[in-house]
Design goal:
This protein has 100 residues and is of the alpha+beta class. The chain contains two helices and five strands, in the order H-E-E-E-E-E-H. A hairpin with a 2-residue loop joins strand 3 (38-40) and strand 4 (43-54).
Length: 100
């Protein structure tokens, strides 16, 4: 890999979760949480997905939050906790929402 691609090429990978390193999935109340914080401006951005099979159809809700952490493990912990909170508040309704 050249110096310039190493310096500039990876920037786009961190946007919108592309190139994010996914943590081990976590099961919670019948949902699967996949934390995938990504590097953004030197910190790990809170991001992940919540998945569930609904009526035989695989449903997925992606989320990104403004919270950022210096350590990857801290970002994973917060992402899982945030996903649990979303599930507790909205349940399967998260799959009915129209993206904004």
């Amino acid at each position: 890999m050249s110096f310039w691609s190493a310096l500039f090429g990876r920037r786009s990978e961190g946007k919108a979760g592309k190139g994010a390193k996914a943590a081990d999935p976590v099961d919670y109340k019948g949902f699967t949480i996949r934390a995938a914080p990504y590097k953004n401006n030197g910190h790990y951005q809170t991001a992940g997905t919540i998945e569930r099979e609904v009526g035989g159809v695989h449903k997925e809700h992606r989320f990104i939050r403004a919270d950022a952490y210096a350590a990857y493990d801290d970002a994973v912990t917060f992402t899982v906790n945030k996903a649990r909170q979303i599930i507790d508040l909205q349940g399967e309704k998260i799959f009915d929402q129209t993206p904004r």
